[in-house]
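[Automated response] Your request has been received and processed.

Submitted sequence:
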Amino acid sequence: MNNTPLNLKDKILAYRIYLILGALFISSLVASNLIFQKFFYWDFFGVYTFEISVGILPYPITFLITDIISEVYGKRKANQIVTAGIFASFFSLLIIYASKEVPATSWSPINDETFTEVFGATAIAVFASMMAYLFAQYIDIQVFHFWKKVTKGKHLWIRNNFSTFSSQFIDTLTVLVLLCSTGIIDWDRFGILLLNGFLFKILIAALDTPILYLSVFILRKRFKLKQGGELALEI
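Generated structure:
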């Protein structure tokens, strides 16, 4: 795809938008690792009842953001955000480890036992999430750009949904295998959680397509991007 050169003013604005998207991406990823131990149910208009972790709620946002970045900023910038997310997740893990090791005071609203109960499995969860994340996000970006090349920059909905469908299944499968293998979740819950997690992510991927179209439309109009064009931010 052709890169669109920018003047200094537009380049500064494009970088600021990129940083905001990156911040939303990283905060969504880290939050999903911290809150995963709570599970909830959602009755989808009486058609199907989902039983899934709350950690799944912010996670689809990361795929939406990488699709926006992939479409507007290109494959390299999308991969850079993914790599930054890996470092942020492991850094948050180090902070949690340090917090667990220091003793709570007698008057602390949260004692050591409660803190360990809530965050005790976070290390395994982050590892499981990172393994799935590595597979899923990089595959998502690769598949997205494969379809972008095949469609010659047209039919954004195809690359958005096809890339997300494949990557989200890999993500859900990898996380559940690792969590079940380490005893955090019983194997008898594996099948239903795999189905629920994948169906929920597919539903969200379909629902976020209009958001992707609107975001890409606004950015293309602002930076005068041609269809399939990408912003040239490399120094």
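Summary generated for your ticket: Residues 153 and 227 are 6 Å apart (CA to CA). The chain has a mean pLDDT of 82.
If you did not submit this request, please reply to this message.
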